[in-house]
Amino acid sequence: MPLIRVTAQKGTFDKATQNKFMEEITDAVLTAEGASPSDAGAQSLAWAYFTEEAEGDVYIGKKHIDTPPVLIRVTTPQGGLTQDARKQLADSINIIVNDFIGTFEGRLNHWLLMDDIQEGGWASNGIVFSINDVKSAMNIPY
Predict the structure, then answer these.
(1) Domain residues for 105?
(2) The pTM is what?
């Protein structure tokens, strides 16, 4: 049950490329969580938001740069990603970003931030979900 937020500078991707990028990011997150990317239940709970920053609104240090890095933030319930799964996700995201925007000379091309929501802190529809509830809904063995 990940929440994925990607922030990029306007114009980093055309719409078709953005769609493909988000598909690959979503599948990488689901795989790291132990869910099948082809599972309809898992896909229905993988929410992803793509936000564009205006050109000139991203700074590295004190300077605006023409090709800023992409920010990817993945939020999962506590226990959704093991330490090994975090490493797997970091490797997968790195490959995806490099494939889509290339590496940057002398600096990073992305940040991946992985957040956990503590047990009892994930809710919808008036229901507080446990990690086992989430895994069951996403057909992840536990």
Answers:
(1) 3-137
(2) 0.94
